[in-house]
Design brief:
By secondary structure, the protein is mainly α. It is built from seven helices and no strands.
Length: about 150
């Protein structure tokens, strides 16, 4: 159980850092790059809230609202990465377009896993925690491969 909380905590920290640090970069982003940066920041904020609720075992019913927000944004991820949308300050790696089928697959996993989380009852803490981890891993697997580190 501690491993799970450490994994969730690490993912939350990484997403929170990613959400906060590009805030300054968003000032210079335009068009679709700004739209996707804003969407990613929104998902990171919602995921951070979810993970805090899991960590503190409080307000578990409120996870549904954040999960629904993530699930609503997830189906649009691939549309926010049209070819050529690599202008500064994007952190998107060129490998997205070189491995498009894999990128689409990873985005679809986030869509599926966030949808499952949005539909879950807050009554089963273990199942809820496991699904939060699945969503976090979906985010991380894509970011690990397709987002440049600062």
């Amino acid at each position: 159980m501690n491993k799970m909380f450490r994994a969730i905590g690490s993912a939350v920290f990484a997403m929170a850092f990613a959400a906060v640090s590009p805030g300054f970069a968003h000032d210079h982003a335009t068009g679709i790059v700004k739209e996707r940066m804003d969407a990613m920041e929104s998902m990171a904020k919602h995921m951070k809230a979810v993970s805090e609720r899991i960590k503190n075992k409080r307000d578990l019913a409120a996870i549904k609202m954040d999960a629904e927000a993530i699930a609503a944004l997830a189906p649009h991820i691939t549309h926010q990465f049209p070819p050529g949308s690599t202008q500064h300050p994007t952190q998107a790696k060129a490998s997205i377009w070189q491995n498009w089928a894999d990128f689409e697959s990873k985005a679809r996993v986030l869509e599926i896993e966030s949808g499952k989380l949005a539909k879950m009852s807050s009554d089963d803490f273990g199942a809820l925690s496991t699904q939060v981890r699945a969503v976090s891993q979906a985010c991380g697997s894509c970011h690990e491969q397709y987002r440049a580190k600062k």
